[in-house]
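hey can u check if this looks right to u? its 223 residues, i copy pasted from the old doc so theres a chance i mangled smth
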Amino acid sequence: MSKINLIIPAAGTSNRFQSTIPKQFHVLDGKTILEHTLSAFKDIQLEDCLIAVNKNTEEKVHDILEKLSFSARTVRGGDTRAESVREAFYEAKESDITLIHDAARMCLTRPLIERVIEAAWRYDAVIPAIPVTDTIKKVQKDRVIKTLTRDDLVAVQTPQAFKTASLRRAYEDYYDKSITDEASLIENAGNAVHIIKGESNNIKVTYPLDLEYVRNYIRNNNN
């Protein structure tokens, strides 16, 4: 039987969220954002689940896992998201596929998770994405250098999926601290990253304004 691991980086302090607590522990509809996120994976058969935490939030995450009866382990994260994922990757059990999902991206659906997993059997790396609708300009300080063509741009989401063996080789041969995400690492290793259709609701809570969007999502999907 195939083995799938899930890694959730949740060690960040959410500076842009402008709150005294990290955004993944903000409560919506009686549950933290992290609880909502984990609930999306509750019926997905996983070999192992690693949640990267910092020392100040490890106990809180353990309480959440006990409340949900969700089988997962915690690992101390690094200074950046990429370092946290790497720490968790090397602590995880052996698997065929590794899923990586943002802790604060709570509005994903099971069909999206299943589409990502299905595509991961065919490709080394799979990322969901949606078309960019805004006009995007490349700037230098306060001057526009170039207007980019929207047809060539997508907004990337998670969960992202990787063949575990390919991701391990990329970590061993191409990792450095300038890497911001695992798809970039696979690209640096010379392997293709395959795009599948994401979901417009699958936003990442980044700013306080995003909370109104996810409140509406919960309200509409609980009816």
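The radius of gyration is 17 Å.
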